[in-house]
What does this fold into?
Amino acid sequence: MYSINEITASELGQKMTRNPDRFRLIDIRTPAETSQGVIPGAELIPMYLIPLHMNHWHKEKRTIVLYCRSGARSAQLCAYLAVQGDEIDVLNLRGGVIDWAREGQVLGRPGEAGINA
It folds into this structure.
């Protein structure tokens, strides 16, 4: 079993405040789920499309943070990426967007400034 690296919502919020360009946020939820709110600055790439995008991530200079509703699917995806053998700097947002909202962090809507649909 491959271990995955995780970050909490409060850690991510603090680090993004200090250095927002350090992270590339990717929301892997479905369009129906993202309509309920997304983390500002996130890219919306449904989970099933990730294999089409991951080939470019090994060149990424930023840390990729994957998240879903609760952190379960994004954790599975982090494990999948670890199995692929690529040296991709990827973190799972522990607790997903649920914990992000619980921490009082801002959520936006797809199509708003800073949300890349």
Q: What stands out?
A: The chain has one domain: 6-102. Helices lie at 9-18, 31-34, 50-53, 72-84, 96-102. The CA atoms of residues 4 and 78 lie 6 Å apart.
